[in-house]
Design goal:
Elements: H1 7-20, H2 24-31, H3 50-68, H4 76-94, H5 99-123, H6 127-154, E1 158-160, E2 163-166, H7 176-195, H8 208-222, H9 226-242, H10 245-265, H11 270-278, H12 289-307, H13 318-325, E3 333-338, E4 341-347, H14 354-391, H15 396-412, H16 423-438
Antiparallel strand pairs: 1-2, 3-4
Length: about 450
């Protein structure tokens, strides 16, 4: 028989459970993205993917705690920063040519940029909760990254340059950015904990953060996702820089050596990687087709904004207005195949730039509201991190992770927009950044 738990121990376990169970929907939202997606919508409930459904559960749990447990709601600053985008979204919906068609877009944007971040901010009560949610991101990245490396090694990935070698994890070729996004999040979070390991971490656990961050470089490289490369580099460099000068120099030296070994020594996709990097700036001389299409769609989005500068063409309006503003050089769509799926023509329904998409569909009003909210989270996070470092706070690792993830997201939005199963993670990342930037000082430590 197992030994009986003394009353004091039971009381501590109950307190621990009471503090942790509200995080379960958030953790489940993250980890359910490890379930393979066959592109048919299997596993969805009434058309809603399971991770999005769990994010809704997290919002309901948060609302229930506010109503029945009298938990303190958002502070005035948090309400303004997280609530402001809702005004721009509502305006873009009611002024759209077809408000009914724009309504699903309003719900989706409200979920990702308002409701889920607010739920994360309110459900994460202390640094322990932050580390649990961020740790689930790292775990998901490890699973998806391992799947992606296996795809590259066995030739079972998405089609790239005539070979089925592109690492896409369980997301499939229709969402080639999914694995790259997840791995980028995990790498940045792992790097933050590697550089400032929390006090009290068991000795056997300490090497895992730097080892995980280093290993995740491999699947990120094999994703052949230029935007994710740039965003991860920006996020990681931000984390490294904010740890301090000496530690930054050591970390950069290790990264440089690892890069030489990875690409130069083992030749991991070196020729294809070189071509992929070069294609970023090739626009006029033999450009990559995807680069050509992207610049054409960027021009189309800019044209829409010039015609409707204040409120844009309305949510979900980009596809309907695309052909009227795109150049003749825009292709009909991108080709996807491999990773267990047949050849498909993927239509180009967005400019693959979140800022331009917001300008086109929501105009300057929506852009100021959304981008202003993101800028407030980033600036507020950096300010709190600087203060935490000066005080020698034990929560610096959380600040590094929050600022690094927010940097990743804002840079990635230059090359991508929302869409696909991994989009729900954007709301969780924004929520973690909001918790660090906007939570009251006493809530950044364990209760």
């Amino acid at each position: 028989m197992a030994p009986a738990v003394p009353p004091a121990g039971r009381s501590a376990l109950l307190r621990e459970w009471g503090r942790s169970w509200p995080l379960l929907p958030l953790i489940a939202t993250v980890l359910l993205l490890a379930v393979p997606d066959d592109g048919t919508g299997a596993g969805a409930v009434y058309g809603v993917p399971a991770p999005d459904l769990l994010s809704g559960v997290a919002v309901l749990v948060c609302a229930g705690r506010l109503l029945f447990l009298r938990r303190r709601p958002l502070t005035a600053a948090a309400a303004v920063v997280l609530g402001l985008p809702a005004l721009g979204l509502a305006l873009a919906t009611v002024t759209a040519a077809d408000p009914a068609a724009a309504l699903p877009g309003f719900v989706r944007y409200l979920q990702i940029f308002v409701l889920v971040p607010a739920a994360v901010l309110l459900l994460v009560r202390d640094t322990r909760g932050f580390r649990i949610v961020a740790g689930s991101l790292v775990l998901l990245a490890a699973v998806q990254g391992a799947t992606g490396v296996h795809q590259y090694a066995t030739g079972s990935g998405a089609s790239y340059m005539g070979e089925d070698i592109r690492a896409v994890g369980t997301f499939g070729p229709s969402d080639v950015m999914g694995m790259a996004t997840v791995v980028g999040y995990g790498l940045v979070a792992a790097a933050a904990y590697a550089l400032r390991t929390p006090a009290g971490t068991p000795a056997w656990l300490r090497p895992w953060a730097p080892a995980t961050a280093a290993l995740l470089v491999v699947p990120l490289t094999l994703s052949f996702s230029r935007g994710a490369w740039i965003a991860t580099a920006a996020g990681a460099l931000t984390v490294i820089t904010l740890t301090g000068r000496r530690q930054a120099v050591r970390a950069l030296s290790v990264l440089a050596a690892a890069g030489v070994v990875l690409v130069g020594g083992f030749g991991v996709g070196s020729e294809m990687i070189s071509q992929r990097l070069t294609s970023i700036t090739e626009v006029t001389s033999a450009p990559d087709r995807s680069v050509n299409d992207r610049y054409a769609m960027w021009a189309a989005a800019t044209g829409m904004w010039r015609e409707h500068p204040a409120a844009g063409v309305g949510l979900k309006g980009f596809p309907a207005h695309r052909d009227g503003h795109a150049s003749i050089g825009l292709s009909a769509g991108s080709d996807t195949a491999g990773a267990g799926q047949d050849f498909r023509k993927q239509p180009l329904l967005s400019p693959h730039n979140m800022y331009l998409l917001v300008l086109a569909e929501q105009g300057l009003i929506g852009f100021v509201a959304l981008a202003g909210s993101w800028a407030a989270l980033l600036v507020g996070g950096v300010r709190r991190l600087v203060r935490a470092r000066a005080r020698g706070s034990a929560a610096v690792d959380c600040g590094l992770a929050a600022v690094g993830l927010m940097t990743w997201q804002t840079v990635d939005f230059l090359y991508a927009d929302i869409g696909g199963p991994s989009t729900v993670l954007t709301g969780i990342v924004l929520g973690l950044a909001a918790w660090w930037a906007l939570a009251e000082p006493e809530r950044t430590t364990a209760a």
